[in-house]
């Protein structure tokens, strides 16, 4: 993952050390030696991540962080505070200033890269999310802004730890914000994970029984849990286990004895990332749906139907199977709008669409073709079957009256239908045009009827 990282520290050797370490891992590093310079750099060309020293003359790191987080140009950039080892209060103050994470000096390589990677992954998700949101709102679909905090509060965590004291300590912290399930046994935990939707799994690497690393590896292997963030709790003396864990792909770690603030921050980061990821996926499906369906009726839209019909006709050419198409149009629909208003008109369109949906087979494709005009594409269907379907649909509309959504108005609705079947070497436009001619004939002949156009010139 290549990224631009801004390193800020007033002590030149500190900057140089971090720069050297990060450059080895192919990050692009920029440097600043005081707060104002850092801010200017960040405003002018926002980096992907900022490593920010706390103790600096003029403007300290807390102030720099506050300003970064207040400005919309830079608020989304993750900030890692670099604090002196002993200062626990610095951490709290850093978090209050809006820092996303912290590292203690002297900066340990494992911690540095674990945190940098974790925050860069989160930022990638968020950037992608913001981009999609922009596209979606440009298109006038999907509005999500307010759900975020709610979603975070209801995050589900599986805590796997067999140390009673530690379980007690952690659940006390989590219980206020999250739904926590505690499991002491690795096999049970694995079964639990495969069946339900957790947002984060917290695993103690020093669990006495079983092998926690094996569980981590399994979580990464199985499709359904591959994306699940893993936060591990690890004893200071267990560096080897930690290295193995990072190789396997754990998302982050907290050292024992657990610093509560640290646990809170890292938990939140992982959950945020997971939830952004889930929402991206969800929105992707949603926008796919929105792109192909009509919002009023839920039927396919015209563009989708035409593409699909074209593909069907291509296939039909090869296997000589007929494709039938019917176009139906509500009779005197303008009267409904004029007499009862547009909302009642919309209700009728919805009711009409759902009767079509019920009346056709699963392989048939029903679409809203225009205002009160609908098309049904029937693969592998000859004209006699298609005209039978048309007649059945016509009756389903005419035989039972429609109600508006308030249940106040009852309306008798009829429709006219034109139906035809594909001929060899025909494209979608030609086929639809012939069905439309049949529909026109049905209207002309008195409406509430089906007209069949065989496509045979002699007929
Ligand atoms: P015909 O029997 O010849 O089809 O007559 P008609 O009144 O159904 O046809 P016309 O084309 O004159 O009018 C169709 C009307 O449908 C006009 C348009 O305002 C209305 N309409 C189109 N789309 C919608 C919609 O989404 N909702 C509502 N309520 N009305 C719509
Ligand atoms: Mg009409």
Record the SSE blueprint:
Elements: E1 4-8, H1 12-24, E2 28-32, H2 35-44, E3 49-53, H3 61-70, E4 79-84, H4 88-96, E5 101-105, H5 109-139, H6 147-153, E6 156-160, H7 164-175, E7 179-183, H8 186-195, E8 200-204, H9 212-221, E9 230-235, H10 239-248, E10 252-256, H11 260-292, H12 302-319, E11 324-330, H13 333-340, H14 342-359, E12 365-370, E13 373-378, H15 383-398, E14 402-403, E15 410-411, E16 415-421, H16 428-444, E17 450-453
Parallel strand pairs: 1-2, 1-3, 3-4, 4-5, 6-7, 6-8, 8-9, 9-10, 16-17
Antiparallel strand pairs: 11-13, 11-16, 12-13, 14-15
Helix pairs in contact: 2-3, 5-11, 8-9, 9-10, 13-14, 14-15
Bound molecules: 3'-deoxy-guanosine-5'-triphosphate and magnesium ion.
Structure description:
- The protein is of the alpha/beta class and 459 residues long.
- The protein folds into three domains: 4-107, Response regulator (Rossmann fold), CATH 3.40.50; 156-286, Response regulator (Rossmann fold, 3-Layer(aba) Sandwich); 293-453, Alpha-Beta Plaits.
- The chain has 16 helices and 17 strands.
- It has helices at residues 12-24, 35-44, 61-70, 88-96, 109-139, 147-153, 164-175, 186-195, 212-221, 239-248, 260-292, 302-319, 333-340, 342-359, 383-398, 428-444, and strands at residues 4-8, 28-32, 49-53, 79-84, 101-105, 156-160, 179-183, 200-204, 230-235, 252-256, 324-330, 365-370, 373-378, 402-403, 410-411, 415-421, 450-453.
- The strands form four sheets. Strands 2-1-3-4-5 form a five-stranded parallel beta sheet, sandwiched between helices.
- β14 (402-403) and β15 form a beta hairpin.
- α8 (186-195) runs parallel beside α9 (212-221) and α13 packs across α14.
- The structure holds 3'-deoxy-guanosine-5'-triphosphate and magnesium ion (MG).
């Amino acid at each position: 993952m290549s990224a631009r990282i801004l390193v800020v520290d007033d002590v030149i050797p500190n900057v140089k050390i971090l720069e050297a370490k990060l450059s080895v891992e192919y990050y692009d590093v920029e440097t600043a030696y005081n707060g104002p310079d850092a801010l200017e750099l960040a405003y002018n060309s926002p980096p992907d991540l900022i490593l920010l020293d706390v103790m600096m003359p003029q403007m300290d790191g807390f102030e720099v962080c506050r300003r970064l987080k207040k400005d919309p140009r830079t608020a989304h950039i993750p900030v890692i505070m670099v604090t002196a080892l002993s200062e626990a209060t610095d951490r709290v103050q850093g978090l209050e200033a809006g820092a996303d994470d912290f590292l203690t000096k002297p900066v340990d390589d494992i911690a540095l890269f674990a945190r940098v990677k974790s925050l860069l992954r989160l930022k990638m998700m968020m950037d992608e999310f913001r981009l999609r949101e922009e596209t979606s709102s440009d298109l006038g679909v999907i509005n999500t802004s307010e759900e975020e905090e709610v979603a975070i509060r209801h995050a589900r965590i599986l805590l796997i730890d067999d140390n009673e004291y530690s379980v007690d300590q952690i659940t006390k912290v989590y219980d206020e914000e999250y739904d926590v399930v505690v499991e002491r046994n690795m096999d049970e935990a694995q079964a639990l994970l495969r069946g339900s939707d957790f947002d984060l799994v917290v695993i103690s690497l020093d669990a006495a029984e079983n092998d926690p690393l094996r569980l981590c590896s399994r979580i990464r292997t199985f499709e359904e849990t591959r994306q699940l963030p893993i936060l591990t709790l690890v004893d200071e003396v267990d560096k080897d286990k930690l290295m193995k864990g990072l190789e396997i792909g754990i998302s982050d770690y907290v050292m024992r004895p657990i610093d509560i603030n640290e646990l809170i921050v890292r938990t939140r980061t992982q959950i945020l990332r997971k939830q952004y990821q889930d929402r991206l996926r969800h929105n992707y499906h949603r926008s796919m749906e929105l792109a192909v369906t009509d919002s009023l009726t839920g039927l396919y839209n015209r563009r989708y139907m035409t593409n699909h019909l074209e593909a069907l006709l291509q296939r039909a050419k090869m296997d000589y199977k007929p494709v039938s198409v019917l176009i139906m149009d509500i009779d005197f629909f303008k009267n409904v709008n004029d007499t009862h208003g547009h909302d009642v008109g919309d209700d009728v369109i919805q009711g009409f669409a759902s009767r079509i949906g019920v009346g056709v087979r699963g392989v048939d494709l029903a679409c809203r073709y225009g205002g009160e005009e609908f098309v049904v594409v029937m693969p592998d269907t000859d004209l006699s079957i298609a005209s039978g379907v048309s007649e059945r649909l016509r009756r389903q509309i005419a035989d039972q009256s429609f109600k508006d959504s308030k249940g106040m108005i009852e309306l008798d609705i009829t429709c006219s239908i034109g139906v035809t079947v594909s001929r060899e070497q025909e494209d979608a436009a030609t086929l639809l045009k012939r069905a439309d001619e049949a529909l026109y004939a049905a209207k002309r002949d008195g409406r509430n009827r089906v007209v069949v156009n065989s496509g045979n010139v002699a007929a």
